[in-house]
Write a structure and sequence with these properties.
Helices cover 51% and strands 15% of the residues. It has 19 helices and 13 strands. The strands form 3 sheets. Strands 2-1-3-4-5-11-10 form a 7-stranded mixed sheet. It is globular. About 14% of the residues have low confidence. InterPro entries: DUF3798 (IPR024258), Peripla_BP_I (IPR028082).
């Protein structure tokens, strides 16, 4: 009996121990499972889970409205096609040191129509200051604009020597590009053969009108300053001869003085220094009632400086503008009125008056160089959009008027002096003269005697 009880007790103990061992092993096997789960929340994945959980994502998405809230991405694609230019217009001008106003006209077009680099319409480049020596570079720059498949018009202002060859090279590549030459330096017959439109200051009419204006201002002598390169240009040479004839007819002494060419070895600085040194001597030689005129932009600033200081008269620049020479000559700060021509004119007038130059110094109220660059760009745009024809002179003058509100313009088609043929693609323009302290002289209303148009 006792033996049986002992056996039963042993069996019970074995079962109990086995059960305990099985129960004890279970937690140890499952402990690792909770352990990783307990560590995972501490890891980045569980921490991010709540943010990434599908339950929260829908709740956040409507609040953020990512697709709708992205106006930038939505507008950019919509804006890009709207603003991306359908065609490009290339503008080539001189640099700030040689012809600042021409360059500023290109900047105005960029303000209006955007730069090609930003998806806009205007591609602006500048030719070298020493363009006579670096002519091949200039030609390559201009003709290179035609490599742009969207280029539909090329404007060069001023159209310095080499422009005709550049235009011919453009024509070899592309026949669909409009070619406009502003203030052409090459002989009319040469540039007319390559350009769709040629613009020049009306140097025929102005040859008489500038002398007439000088007389109205009180001048008794007239000094014309230039150099051989400019005198080799037909229109500049004719203007000089017309000025001499006008002086004879109006009772004013005419004198020709030679100055260094800024594109020669002396450069702009040397040419300007020459003028600074010579003007006092010329005033002593010809007297204080002498009006001065120079054919080069770089000569203008030192000439104005000395006239303001020493005396004499200055009707207007070769390519007139309130910015042509006056700011540098008189130390005028204009950065706060940039592009505001009435404000610029007013400030220059105040400076001229302060220097004692009132009624002795003049200009055009709006820059010829600036206006020609801008007007030709605007005209090209209208032609390319089919609004006007290239031959429409009235439409061209409307473009000039867009940039010169209040100023009067006059002009005519160029007539070949040798053949008498009127050139429909060559237009001569001029604006009324504005004398500081006097106002407009009304020169656009003056009738130029017919004989001056036949002087060679």
């Amino acid at each position: 009996m006792n033996k049986q009880k002992l056996i039963v007790l042993v069996i019970v103990l074995l079962v109990a121990v086995g059960g305990w061992m099985m129960m004890g092993n279970k937690p140890q096997e499952q402990a690792p499972a909770p352990q990783p789960q307990a560590e995972q929340p501490a890891e980045p994945a569980p921490a991010e889970k709540p943010a990434e959980a599908p339950a929260e994502a829908p709740a956040e998405q409507p609040a953020e409205e990512k697709p709708a809230e992205a106006p930038a991405p939505a507008e950019k694609p919509a804006e890009a096609p709207a603003e991306k230019a359908a065609f490009h217009i290339g503008i080539c001008t001189g640099t700030v040191s040689q012809s600042e106003d021409d360059l500023r006209g290109a900047e105005r077009l960029i303000e209006e129509y955007g730069s090609v680099s930003d998806g806009g319409m205007i591609q602006h480049i500048t030719y070298p200051d020493n363009f006579m020596v670096e002519m091949e570079t200039t030609i390559a720059q201009i003709s290179g604009l035609a490599d742009d498949p969207l280029m539909k018009a090329i404007i060069v202002n001023q159209a310095i020597p080499g422009t005709t060859e550049a235009f011919r090279r453009v024509r070899e590549k592309r026949s669909d590009i409009l070619l406009f030459a502003g203030e052409a330096h090459e002989d009319p017959g040469v540039i007319e053969s390559a350009a769709d439109l040629v613009i020049n200051c009306d140097n025929i009419a102005r040859g008489y009108l500038i002398v007439d204006a000088a007389k109205k201002m009180g001048a008794k002598e007239f000094v014309h300053i230039s150099f051989p390169r400019h005198m080799s240009y037909e229109l500049l040479s004719r203007r000089r001869n017309i000025m001499e004839e006008a002086c004879n007819d109006l009772g004013i002494g005419f004198h020709f003085e030679t100055a260094p060419d800024p594109t020669s070895d002396v450069g702009v600085a040397g040419a300007q220094q020459f003028i600074l040194e010579k003007v006092p001597a010329w005033l002593e030689k010809y007297g204080k009632d002498t009006a001065f005129f120079c054919t080069n932009d770089a000569h203008t600033e030192p000439l104005l400086k000395r006239i303001a200081e020493e005396g004499g008269y200055f009707v207007e620049a070769d390519l007139p503008s309130p910015l042509m020479g006056y700011p540098g000559a008189l130390g005028i700060e204009l950065s706060d009125v940039k592009g505001d021509w009435p404000a610029i004119l007013k400030r220059v007038e105040e400076a001229v008056d302060a220097k004692g130059g009132a009624k002795r110094m003049g200009t055009w109220a709006y820059s010829y160089g600036y206006t020609t660059t801008a007007a030709l760009g605007e005209f090209a745009r209208r032609v390319l959009e089919g609004a006007v024809e290239v031959e429409n002179m009235e439409a061209l003058f409307e473009c000039y008027g867009k940039y010169t509100p209040g100023a009067k313009w006059n002009g005519s088609l160029y007539t070949d002096i040798a053949t008498g043929v009127v050139k429909n693609n060559h237009i001569l323009v001029y604006q009324d003269t504005y004398v500081f302290g006097l106002g407009y002289l009304g020169m656009t209303e003056v009738e130029v005697p017919e004989k001056y148009f036949s002087i060679k």
